[in-house]
Amino acid sequence: MKVVNGSLATKDYPGANMNELKNGLADARQALNSLRMEVQIKENALISAQQQIRFIRQQLSSKMSDSRAG
Hints:
Elements (H helix, E strand, L loop, with lengths): L1 H9 L4 H55 L1
């Protein structure tokens, strides 16, 4: 995005074309931000699932140790 912004700043496009390019860039930024949010949400869900799996493993390990000892 920074490269595109830099390129737009150094080029002289006709008004309508420049507006179209800027609108396209704004749309791309918005889509990228949406994807970032979606990735963050999925990452948080994955971290939560991993924590739950760890907890279940600990519980299972503890119960198996208890049953062997008893």
